[in-house]
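Lab notebook page, bench 4
Experiment: in silico fold of construct C2
Operator: M.H.
Input chain length: 520 residues
Purpose: comparison with the prior construct
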Amino acid sequence: MSTTTPARTEQAPAPAEPPPSEGRRSGAVLALARFEARELLLQIPILLNFALYVGFVALRLMSNDGMDDYPVLNTVDRRTQTAPLLFAIAVLICTNSAALRSRKRGTVQQFAVLAMEPWRRTLAHVLSVIPYAALTALVVAAEYTREALKPGAIGHGSFGELAVVPLSVLLAGVLGVLLARLLPSSFVPILFSIAFYMLVVIASAAMDAGRWAAWLAPILFTTDTGGDPVPADLLGRPADWHALYVAALCALLTCVALLASGGRTRAVKAATALALAVTAVGAIGQFPRDTAALEAARRTASESPQKVQSCSTYNGSTYCSFPEWSGVRSDWAGVVDRVRSLAGGTAAQAELTVRQRIYTAGGVEVDAALDPSTTPDEVTVGTRWGGNRVPEFAVGVATVLVAGTENATEQEMCRDARPVAIMWLALGSDPTPSETFQHVRLDDSTEGSGLALTPTNPLSMTAGQATVVRELLARPRTEVTARVKAHWTELTSKATTTAQAAKLLGVPVPKEAEECDESE
């Protein structure tokens, strides 16, 4: 009996699944990036610091001292740059923690069975930062747009200056991922943040000192020296080149992180070479060029502003300014007309020249006083307007109407009647004269001797003169105006004392001693 064994049929191996297409890989990277972006949103440091950043900007926009009604936009764009620094540091620390999550939880080995390569996961972590850079850009745009839409906005801002803020947030996130790949430790980003903060402070100080190398730091503090703004073309800031440099640096560090994660593909290598070239171009582009021409332009604007200014005429007076301030001339004219309407004699029809002036001898935007003009019937106005600058300008206009020139605000003027006439012209038609009198004085007081601020040298007043001015402001405007016009010649004479002026104006003679305030 024979048995037959059935032949074993070998089963053909299952066909291998084709590798995922490039489109599916890109979709997976974007999906992971969206997930990591949502995870970052749950991190307390990011939520807290972004809320503080937005709150700080909101408070700054809501503050109103009058001068905010006339924002100079080439200072507004730089004002946006320092507020989000803490938020950028929070992004750096949190992205670093997210990139180290698998290492902390011991799941690195499990990624080996996934189809997504490590460098693609690194790219997803970098992409997860983009929404936060975009949010920062929205805050910056909102702040700048609100200031730019004000009717009194002056000049224009720089896209390069505005782009630095979102780029700095993006750079912080890229640095966090790069540190996770090169130095996988949770303490590294904290130490790096401290070192980076010190670098920013040092670079900002170097920039204030005029050193070109400071621009190689990706983030710079914008220090507020309290000086007056200048025309944008006198700043000499390579803002556009700096924005290109920071953007290229973001791309370069991203490529380094991808290479460190094994992404040595032809596309990554090509992107690395391109990013390196653009970074070098951006760095070189920041190098100062034609500094002699810039210094000459600054010197001309400071010493001979009439060569670079245009003028307009309102009611017989001429108003000259740098082109960016042309829209404010009508406001200057309103103050001049208001002050002149209270004057008597020929001053009521005086044809003044109001000229805008800046000081650049010690650098731009420095805190320095302008010397009074010696040209008859010429009034100085600065580059800040609104708030307390309006009554200060009114005092300057009144000084020229009473004394003929600005340099009459010296000490020999303080014991005669002219300061009384000047302060009445400046404050008599003001909506809140007593309050404005307090604000225009250096010591914020309406009693005793003191200094009344002007665009140039302050006007020195004695305690007696201050008393007479207070009495005048408390009386009906039409009554005082009539007396001022009737006794204009005596009130503008060097020979008339404060006591005599009080009698002419019908107010009590002050009892205070006529002692000038020597402090300036």
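Observations: The mean pLDDT is 86. The CA atoms of residues 41 and 47 lie 7 Å apart.
Next step: discuss at group meeting.
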